[in-house]
């Protein structure tokens, strides 16, 4: 007898259908007969929300009135994905919804598809924040997600006729957005600029201008916990948005200048991933949401108190800084405590250090934010003063520890002309963690070595995770049902390590065949999805091989496309016999930051290789390549369950963790990858025999750098590589234009900083091993099932439990 513990609301289908009709009537003002799918989507969303309000209120009051320390997750990005299906699952209303909308004359899929996916993030960091607030609510831990409601999220990506990326604004708020509740009565004032003056011996900041931070609240329902947390995203508004006097002088544009200046702050998400943005508006965004959120937290936890005892603040809530983007929060809390609540420096510092913790998400020096002191001084003059004083205190502390001047010089937070935010976060908080075991070790051994030597107890690791609710249950219902059948319970959805119970079933050929059938059904579904969304005809009788992630040189999409070109050439000139060709379809999905020249050229190359290969009758049915436009959460939820082979081929020591790798393993794809980021832990847990490993280790990479890396040597050494690079250079993929990719080829042969050429031979060699196994579907699927069975560790619930134990020292509400 299979145990089903999934939440199921007592509401009947008929009652839920009536609730939708009521919403259609009173909020959409249409009859059920007139209603469109978009109307029913909004009505159903509001009906679900209404079922969550009581738990939301209860969670808030238990949080404020109880003794359970809450968690505040500060993040400039929350890549939430579509909300309706997730809310239905956690509210236990999925079946009622499916039946109710059919009763209203619609297909559930059409209503779900009517939702516009919010894209308030760039990639892994933003999606991790979304998975983490889902797990916090599902574990019953009181928490706030704090961020920005950008009017425009990550750009929409299309390709022009030459395969170049074209970016267009993301108008996600153009239609009614039923999930966010805008709360004008709980706004906060955020100020900028001006000067600092002495008044009665006290420092007083006289800002030059202010904006109104208005919260837009999103419910974050937990799975099975009965708890509903809050995601509070701030939108910027102007206090005096319209200058009537100027308007009356027919200076219409000037009349709205104040409004534009203010609203600009939450206008758009900066589209850079793993690269710092040095723009003033970016710093304004960071200070805007952090200042509003800290004042909001004091309002929430000390309701109505004019002079609250803020020495208890760190017991009320602990804040996680999601990368360096919210680190200005450290001098901001100091300013609030000293200037607004008259605490002395030492008390303020003690409170601040206990309140914050910092997660570093990168190893790339260019991604660590360093703000010009002049910019902070101009925009936030009081904060620069406080940062200088924090740095003085810090240097004194280091001297007290007997640390030498040269080291202190290297560790300076304030260097005279710049402020190093990662150093401020490390000194200003209680804990620092990396996002995978290898990453956290490299932080201690390299990136933050001086700090780890001085403050070893601050450094810890919390390996990333993903929520199984969205990335297995919603994305892969076929696999979910099979897992529940195999385990005899659906409890794995809130305790993912129960997947280990599938290990014995990997030796049961019948069960493995059922697993294979699920994968084939998902491939069939994706063929239909691809036809509907991209107009392409994918051959489902091929190996589905996927590489989806942001376009960045360290992730090495270049290695993948060179291997594809090599394969194409081998088929074309008969180097590989027809029988030896294993039909493969390669799917790419990747957005490049608009200003990232070589990344955009790589996208153009991939699109043109796709054009040539897919229109070449000599390779039809043997090799196909697609760059699917506008990679987003929806595409991930459809492509990951259909994928058989996932690419995690970054240069060792560059990908902090990766989280796509976890989603693919949990959905029964095998991984070809390097010993980088969380790949290391995935391989350890699924078994080396169930993972295709290739390439240099971190140590071998470091040796290459030390010895002086010459990419041309590898170009000359491997004829497969030489041929592939030459085909890129000779115009084969650019209608004969030999200059089209010249900058890319030149970079490969003269610089190749992330050593694509050095790892090419190993990568090309392992393809044979992959194809040999794929010719034995039972063995392939047995290994794929063992990936699922042994990947329960990569649940974001486990990550949150690690944060609770190692960093936050709190837990679920009673
Ligand atoms: N920024 N940032 N960092 C990243 C990703 N690009 O968003 O954070 C992700 C979440 O921690 C990591 O998985 C990934 O390796 C890392 O590069």
Automatic annotation (TrEMBL):
Pfam family membership, one: Phosphorylase
Keywords: Carbohydrate metabolism, Glycosyltransferase, Pyridoxal phosphate, Transferase
Transmembrane segments: none
PROSITE patterns, sorted: PHOSPHORYLASE
A single Gene Ontology CC term: cytoplasm
Cofactor(s) annotated in UniProt: pyridoxal 5'-phosphate
Catalytic activity, EC: 2.4.1.1
Residues with PTM N6-(pyridoxal phosphate)lysine: 663
Biological processes per GO annotation: glycogen catabolic process
Broad class of enzyme this protein falls into: transferase
GO MF annotation list: glycogen phosphorylase activity; pyridoxal phosphate binding
InterPro entries for this protein: Glycg_phsphrylas (IPR011833), Glyco_trans_35 (IPR000811), Pyridoxal_P_attach_site (IPR035090)
Catalytic activity: [(1->4)-alpha-D-glucosyl](n) + phosphate = [(1->4)-alpha-D-glucosyl](n-1) + alpha-D-glucose 1-phosphate
Function per UniProt: Phosphorylase is an important allosteric enzyme in carbohydrate metabolism. Enzymes from different sources differ in their regulatory mechanisms and in their natural substrates. However, all known phosphorylases share catalytic and structural properties.
PANTHER family named in the record: GLYCOGEN PHOSPHORYLASE (PTHR11468), GLYCOGEN PHOSPHORYLASE, LIVER FORM (PTHR11468:SF3)
Similarity field: Belongs to the glycogen phosphorylase family.
Name of the protein in question: Alpha-1,4 glucan phosphorylase
């Amino acid at each position: 007898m299979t145990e089903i513990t999934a939440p199921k609301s007592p509401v009947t289908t008929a009652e839920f259908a009536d609730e939708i009709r009521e919403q259609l009537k009173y909020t959409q003002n249409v009859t059920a007969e007139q209603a469109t799918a978009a109307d029913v989507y909004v009505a159903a969303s509001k009906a679900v929300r209404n079922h969550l309000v009581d738990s939301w209120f209860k969670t808030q009051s238990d949080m404020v009135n109880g003794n359970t320390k809450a968690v505040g997750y500060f993040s400039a990005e929350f890549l939430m994905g579509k909300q309706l299906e997730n809310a239905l699952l956690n509210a236990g209303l999925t079946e009622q919804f499916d039946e109710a909308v059919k009763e209203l004359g619609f297909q559930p899929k059409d209503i779900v598809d009517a939702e516009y996916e919010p894209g308030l993030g760039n990639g892994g960091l933003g999606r991790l924040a979304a998975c983490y607030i889902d797990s916090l609510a599902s574990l019953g831990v009181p928490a706030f997600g704090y961020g920005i409601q950008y009017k425009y999220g990550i750009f929409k990506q299309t390709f022009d006729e030459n395969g170049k990326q074209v970016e267009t604004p993301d108008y996600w708020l153009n239609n009614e957005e039923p999930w966010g509740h805008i709360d004008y009565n709980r706004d906060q004032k955020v100020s900028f600029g001006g000067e600092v003056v002495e008044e009665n011996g006290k420092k007083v900041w006289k800002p030059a201008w202010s904006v109104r931070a208005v919260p837009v609240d999103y419910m974050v329902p937990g799975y099975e916990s009965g708890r509903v947390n809050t995601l509070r995203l701030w939108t910027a508004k102007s206090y005096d948005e319209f200058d009537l006097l100027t308007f009356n002088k027919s200076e219409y544009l000037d009349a709205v200048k104040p409004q534009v200046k203010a609203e600009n702050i939450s206008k758009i998400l900066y589209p850079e991933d793993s690269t710092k943005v040095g723009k003033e508006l970016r710093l304004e965004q960071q200070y805007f949401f952090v200042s509003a959120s800290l004042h909001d937290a004091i309002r929430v936890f000390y309701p109505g108190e004019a002079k609250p005892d803020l020495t208890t603040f760190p017991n009320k809530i602990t804040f996680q800084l999601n990368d360096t983007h919210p680190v200005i929060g450290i001098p901001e809390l100091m300013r609030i405590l000293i200037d607004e609540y008259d605490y002395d420096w030492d008390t303020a510092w003690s409170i601040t250090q206990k309140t914050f913790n910092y997660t570093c998400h990168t190893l790339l020096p260019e991604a660590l934010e360093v703000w010009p002191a002049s910019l902070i001084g101009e925009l936030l003059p009081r904060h620069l003063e406080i940062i200088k004083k924090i740095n003085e205190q810090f240097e004194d502390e280091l001297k007290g520890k007997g640390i030498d001047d040269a080291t202190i010089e290297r560790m300076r937070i304030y260097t005279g002309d710049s402020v190093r935010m990662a150093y401020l976060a490390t000194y200003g908080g209680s804990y620092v963690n990396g996002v995978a075991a290898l990453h956290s070790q490299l932080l201690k051994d390299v990136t933050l070595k001086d700090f780890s030597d001085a403050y070893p107890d601050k450094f810890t690791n919390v390996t990333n995770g993903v929520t199984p609710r969205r990335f297995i249950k919603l994305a892969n219902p076929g696999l979910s049902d099979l897992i529940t059948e195999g385990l005899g319970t659906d409890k794995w959805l809130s305790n993912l390590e129960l997947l280990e119970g599938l290990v014995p079933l990997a030796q049961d050929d019948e069960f493995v065949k059922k697993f294979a059938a699920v994968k084939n059904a998902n491939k069939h579904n994706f063929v239909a999805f691809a036809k509907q969304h991209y107009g392409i005809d994918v051959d489902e009788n091929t190996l589905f091989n996927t590489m989806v992630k942001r376009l960045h040189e360290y992730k090495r999409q270049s290695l993948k496309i060179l291997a594809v070109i090599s394969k194409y050439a081998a088929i074309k000139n008969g180097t590989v016999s027809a029988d030896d060709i294993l039909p493969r379809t390669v799917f790419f999905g990747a957005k490049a930051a608009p200003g990232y020249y070589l990344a955009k050229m790589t996208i153009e190359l991939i699109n043109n290789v796709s054009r040539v290969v897919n229109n070449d009758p000599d390779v039809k049915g043997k090799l196909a390549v697609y760059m699917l436009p506008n990679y987003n959460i929806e595409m991930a939820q459809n492509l990951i369950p259909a994928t058989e082979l996932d690419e995690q081929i970054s240069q060792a020591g560059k990908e902090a963790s990766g989280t796509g790798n976890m989603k693919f393993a949990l959905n029964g794809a095998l991984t070809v990858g390097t010993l980088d980021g969380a790949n290391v832990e995935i391989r350890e847990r699924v078994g080396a025999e169930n993972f295709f490993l290739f390439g240099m280790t971190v140590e071998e990479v470091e040796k290459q750098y030390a010895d002086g890396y010459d990419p041309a040597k590898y170009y000359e050494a491997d004829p497969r590589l030489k041929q592939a690079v030459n085909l890129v250079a000779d115009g084969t993929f650019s209608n004969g234009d030999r200059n089209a990719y010249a900058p890319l080829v030149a970079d490969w042969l003269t610089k190749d900083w992330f050593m694509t050429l050095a790892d090419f031979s190993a990568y090309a060699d392992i393809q044979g091993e992959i194809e040999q196994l794929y010719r034995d579907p039972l063995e392939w699927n047995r290994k794929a099932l063992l990936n699922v069975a042994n990947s329960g560790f990569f649940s974001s619930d486990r990550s949150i439990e690690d944060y609770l134990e190692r960093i936050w020292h709190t837990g679920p509400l009673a």
